[in-house]
Design goal:
Blueprint: H1 3-19, H2 32-37, H3 43-47, E1 51-55, E2 67-74, H4 77-82, E3 88-95, E4 101-105, E5 111-128, E6 134-135, E7 140-144, E8 147-151, E9 155-159, E10 164-167, E11 172-189, E12 198-199, H5 223-226
Antiparallel strand pairs: 1-2, 2-3, 3-11, 4-11, 4-12, 5-6, 5-9, 5-10, 5-11, 7-8
Length: 227
């Protein structure tokens, strides 16, 4: 992706987030220079990969296959393994109309996916085989706002604004905005986007950025390069 396109997507996301009355944390608005200057105090933000995240999954077609995310907070895997401490994470996402977030699952992370507003959110669901691999013949069971729901292989679950689904490791899922753009909340156990996204097809989690202009704000995938 070109940096100019990333900056454009970021500006559009800012507008949508503000329309729904949501407020991002102060570090969201730091310029790259300010982030670097604050790095001694912001090390936790960097280590936890909190912040802006825009991906086309390395496929070069964000409008068709992509997702906007902002990681608001993220815990420590060591706390999760110990069974106490900061074992949770929270994100804000935007899924555009008919924009696919491709079929995937997680090994560690369980997550609540919440439609925070906008259009409906469509989620395609499959179960796993005995080894946790994608199984086109497997259904499963999820919780929708505390109520159990059995799904058949490939069933598309529609979440209206305010509705949510709990997905556990082994619940394979893809999602998109149905009829419009959707603001999505994600509340989960500790998040590790480098190792805990298992895609059905061989695609990347992060985008390669072509630097045709200066960054508006740094992406989490920029931290190693710019900081």
């Amino acid at each position: 992706m070109k940096r100019s396109r990333v900056n454009e997507i970021m500006a559009q996301a800012e507008e949508m987030i503000q329309e729904f009355g949501f407020r991002l944390p102060p570090f969201a608005w730091w310029s790259p220079a300010e982030f670097k200057a604050r790095l001694p105090q912001a090390q936790r933000i960097v280590e936890a990969a909190m912040g802006w995240d825009i991906t086309d999954y390395g496929q070069g077609d964000f409008d068709r296959l992509g997702l906007f995310l902002f990681t608001l907070r993220n815990g420590d895997l060591r706390d999760l393994q110990a069974g106490h401490g900061m074992a949770y994470a929270e994100k804000l996402l935007i899924s555009r109309r008919d924009q696919i977030s491709p079929m995937h699952t997680h090994v560690i992370k369980a997550e609540d996916i919440i439609n925070r507003g906008g259009a409906n959110l469509a989620i395609e669901l499959y179960g796993s085989d005995a080894e946790g691999n994608f199984d086109e013949t497997a259904g499963g069971r999820v919780m929708c706002d505390g109520v159990p729901r059995i799904f058949t292989p490939g069933e598309v679950l529609i979440l209206r604004p305010g509705e949510s689904v709990t997905l556990r490791p082994g619940d394979w899922h893809a999602f998109w905005g149905e009829g419009g753009d959707v603001l999505i909340g994600e509340v989960s156990t500790v998040n590790d986007d480098k190792t805990d996204n298992i895609f059905r097809d061989p695609i990347g989690r992060f985008s390669e950025i072509e630097e045709d202009e200066a960054p508006r704000h740094l992406l989490v995938s920029d931290y190693d390069k710019f900081l």
